[in-house]
User: What shape does this take?
Amino acid sequence: MSGNRGGRWLAALPMGILAVATIYPLLFTANVAMKTRREYVLDRFSVAGAVRLDNITSAWTSVGMGRYFLNSVVVVTAAVVLLLLLGSMAGFALSQSRFRGSSVLFLGCLAALFIPFQVIMVPLARVMADTGLIDTYPGLVLAYVAQFLPFTVFLMTSYYRTVAPEIIDAARIDGNSLYGVYRRIMLPIGAPALLSVGILNALFCWNDVLIALLMMPSAEHRTLMVGVTALRGQYSANIPTFAAGVLIAAAPVLLLYLFLQRQIADGVTAGATKG
Amino acid sequence: MSNTISRPSVRRAAAGRAGAGLRGERLAPYVLVAPAILVIVGLRLWPLLLGVNFSFTGDGERDGASVGLDNYADLFRDPLFQTALRNVGLLVLLLPIAVAIPGLLATFIYLRVPGHRFFRSVYFFPAVLSPVIVGAIFNLLLAFDGPVNAVLGSVGLGPIDWLGDPHVAMFAVVGVHVWATFGMALVVFLAGFATLDGALLDAARVDGASLPQTIWHVIIPGLSRTIQFVFVTTMIGMLTSMFGLLYVMTSGGPEGSTYLPEYYIWIQQGQMNRPALASAASTVLFVIMLVVGLLQLSLLRRAVKES
Assistant: This one.
């Protein structure tokens, strides 16, 4: 059966149905976002009369999704830059191992990998409140960095371990300090890994809602995902505008997926195969 | 692993030529590691200890005072937390399904079903969407007068109150979670397949093995490590990444039937202002995860050995 053609076509049928079930929810939402309220109430399934963007613009401006969008962009960008910087520095040092305490430090990062956020949520909120970081952008950025740094360090360490030691030796003989080796050799060599890890981290931070809810109580500091949860309460009577808000929040991820699907999948498998 | 830091000739050359002091060079790796270690220790490991410590202190008037195991007693008496634990049990029961679906699909894609490339990228897509967005979309789809019930109605079934019936809601949320995350497991399975020995599959085909036989005797033993990994990560995902869905789709309702420990922690901390009780729930969740993880590993090891 695994070899005959008929069997393969037979398997393709349920898979095709499942593929439709995977795409349909998003198409339905996009369609609703193009409708007027009247169209939606009269018939949920009719295809929107025209490509109308008024729901999108009203979600962007009057609901404040535009502001939340910018908040998310700023926070996620800062968090990813910091994650890549700290992660690659530590990953490089740990990959060179055999300095005193290096294995203990690496194990510490590995242990932190297995602490779910829910387990440290309460004390972290208190630490952030005590340091005055709660409800501030630096505080949220720091919370994201702390959350995804163990994973980043772990991946960068395993990547840098595959770099040929001769390259580093040569750079040292040319008179580079360890910092010079990091800046001139390891950062450029690490580019593919940094890209993969950076995309994954951006996705994680962009999609998060729990950390943002915990760290940013005030409305003007909301990130986009928290904005979506607030939409539900405000627009339960105006489903097309609600759908438009959801679409705005999904759009950047959709674009990222269309262009960088490979790197995302590679990042996921790199984390899996090295584990 | 060669190491460049302790190779004297190289180090001398570098130090001499760069004019950097030997001490500075010896400190360099620590300087590079320090920021990351500070963040990880200060904002992850330290809070973990703090949280366990918290769980033995009081809330409200007894803030900071030591109360022994009172929080844990309150916790296990609370019907909402009992429901949360029952739901964890339900997740464990549903786990094999959540692993089998991506496993089977990955098998078909690996065997080059027509359109396998297309299927791969379509199936992986929901995995990159935020649970919040997925939850919001399914609020529309699972509405009482929504598309899902319309489809059921057309074949003479339903309508089902997906998110309003306490006996159904949890299954609906878990179903959506599986829909949204099976792409991740699928990609991991495909990476595992890449390491599988093709000759074994060819041999099975030559011997005329049926597909179920091939899966049972060749693929499952060959992918035992991948299967273990997917089991553990799927379970961790079920216990720690459903918050967004619960928050958007049901808010723990109807009648508290969709509580999970993580949602309970959030409610006690944020809405009920009982951080110490929430810390106790956190500690219990951590223990559950450790136990489940270790149990699964040992069970799977045994199963793999027997087959």
Observations:
- Chain A is about 80% helix and 0% strand.
- The CA atoms of residues 95 and 157 of chain A lie 5 Å apart.
